[in-house]
Amino acid sequence: MTDVLLGLLLAAPVLLVTGGPVSVKDHNGTTPLVIWHGMGDNCCNPLSMGAVKKMLEEDIPGIHVLSLMVGKNMIEDTENGFFKDVNEQVSMVCSQLAQDPHLKGGYNAMGFSQGAQFLRAVAQRCPSPPMKTLISVGGQHQGVYGLPRCPGESSTVCDFIRKALNNGAYTELIQKHLVQAQYWHDPLNDDLYKKHSLFLADINQERVVNETYKKNLQLLEKFVMVKFLQDSMVDPVDSEWFGFLKSGQAKETETLQESVLYKEDRLGLAAMDAAGKLVFLATQGDHLQFTREWFNQNLLPYLR
Ligand SMILES: *[C@@H]1O[C@H](CO)[C@@H](O)[C@H](O)[C@H]1NC(C)=O
Ligand SMILES: *[C@@H]1O[C@H](CO)[C@@H](O)[C@H](O)[C@H]1NC(C)=O
């Protein structure tokens, strides 16, 4: 008891100094950045998101980088990337961002792999605090139809996921509990996808056009999509630029601009394109493989 009290007393003056609203000046005039990791990864792995955070802090002195952790610790965060209802994850993140005093004036967001489509859902559903620029690094905006490789590959988790997806990605049980099923997009079963996909079909306006989503997404200053030209984990890789397989077959693909989504402008992407807000970048390399030089040249300018 006394230990606790002493701790509180000692901590109090420190809290007074660091608490309270954070002014822009504290961050050297930089815009804060929120990042969301990909599948099999977590917020703080020193070899991935931890390294990205460190790199950004070196390149943009003063920047506040928040690497999202979904769950109470790194292990839960990794597990949730496989097994936690995505709609719930998005709403958890929304409340976390709304409560973060650093982000009050707005923030940029950068999502890696599945973290990219999750952050787009944040932009569409939670306009406050405002997201300024969204960078999607290897995100799958039209989902995937196939899971050729998993990060690390060693994991038996991957085999389990493949089996579950083959056994019925659109059953309620699997939709609720398997993250990858929530962006599984089967072009041979378009009706099933539209009807039962709890996450992707919703944010992609497949059932109805939610005008709120359309309005909110267009609040972005830029929506940057990075595609990896030798990507061996995302199938089809066109999804990284919001393209996909044409409905009814699994061979021919169509670009975003050729899609109904764009032609009917159900999500505001055509309007954003016309306003110069969509940026399509391509880079050599497998999934999420980029050099610091490429990053600094191509992505850093959007984050300064
Ligand atoms: C603020 O930014 C300038 C210019 O980028 C940099 O030289 C300086 O070191 C930064 N200051 C802090 C406290 O990070
Ligand atoms: C549209 O999206 C908003 C924000 O997430 C939500 O509150 C609303 O219920 C949605 N409307 C429909 C018709 O789905």
Describe the structure.
With 304 residues, this protein is α/β, with parallel strands linked by helices. It has a domain at 40-144 and 199-254 and 261-302: Rossmann fold (3-Layer(aba) Sandwich), CATH 3.40.50. Helix content is 39%, strand content 12%. It has 14 helices and eight strands. It has a six-stranded parallel β-sheet with strand order 2-1-3-4-5-8, with helices on both faces. A two-stranded antiparallel ribbon has the order 6-7. Helix 2 links the parallel strand 1 and strand 2. The longest helix is centred in the first third of the chain and has 17 residues, at 2-18. Residues 1-24 have low confidence and may be disordered. It binds 2-acetamido-2-deoxy-beta-D-glucopyranose (2 copies). One 2-acetamido-2-deoxy-beta-D-glucopyranose is lined by residues 28, 61-62.
Provide keyphrases for this structure.
alpha/beta; Rossmann fold; two-stranded antiparallel ribbon; disordered N terminus; binds 2-acetamido-2-deoxy-beta-D-glucopyranose; EC 3.1.2.22; lysosome; secreted; Palmitoyl-protein thioesterase 1
Radius of gyration: 20 Å
Q: List each distinct ligand once.
A: 2-acetamido-2-deoxy-beta-D-glucopyranose
CATH topology of the domain at 40-144 and 199-254 and 261-302: Rossmann fold
Topology pattern, helix = H, strand = E:
HEHEHHEHEHHHHHEEEHHEHH
Q: What is the helix content? A: 25-40%
Proportion of β residues? 5-15%
Given the structure, what is the number of helices?
14
Structural class: alpha/beta
- Any idea what the CATH superfamily of the domain at 40-144 and 199-254 and 261-302 is called? Alpha/Beta hydrolase fold, catalytic domain
N-end to C-end Cα span: 47 Å
Q: Provide the CATH architecture of the domain at 40-144 and 199-254 and 261-302.
A: 3-Layer(aba) Sandwich
Give the CATH level 1 class of the domain at 40-144 and 199-254 and 261-302: Alpha Beta
Q: If you average the pLDDT, what whole number results?
A: 90
Enumerate the spans where pLDDT stays under 50 for 5 or more consecutive residues.
1-24
GO molecular function, one term: palmitoyl-(protein) hydrolase activity
Family: Belongs to the palmitoyl-protein thioesterase family.
Keywords: Disulfide bond, Endoplasmic reticulum, Glycoprotein, Golgi apparatus, Hydrolase, Lysosome, Secreted, Signal
Main location: endoplasmic reticulum
